[in-house]
Design goal:
By secondary structure, the chain is mainly α. It has one domain: Aspartate Aminotransferase, domain 1, CATH 3.90.1150.10. It is built from 3 helices and 2 strands; from the N terminus they run H-H-E-H-E. It has helices spanning 3-14, 16-35, 54-60; strands at residues 41-43, 70-72. Strands 1-2 form a two-stranded antiparallel sheet. It starts with a helix and ends with a strand.
Length: 73
């Protein structure tokens, strides 16, 4: 691996925790926004307290995740 590629890799690793935290926060905001819409939507975000596996999620990860699955009913 070239020195440049190592530098790019290391610079990405240094900021990974911050980038992941921002992604968690944005996913939470989007999920809450989707839930507040007047359309009939089912939002299955793992960060919600009423998620079927909310307890397991809290044990395994610091936030609800960055994926916000939903369906239009």
């Amino acid at each position: 691996m070239s020195p440049f590629h190592v530098w790019v890799l290391l610079s990405g690793v240094e900021t990974m925790a911050l980038r992941m935290q921002v992604q968690f926060e944005n996913a939470d905001k989007i999920a809450a926004w989707l839930r507040g819409q007047p359309q009939e939507l089912n939002v299955y975000h793992a960060g919600f307290e009423d998620h079927p596996q909310a307890e397991l999620v809290r044990k395994q990860q610091p936030a609800g995740g960055i994926v916000v699955p939903f369906e239009v009913v």
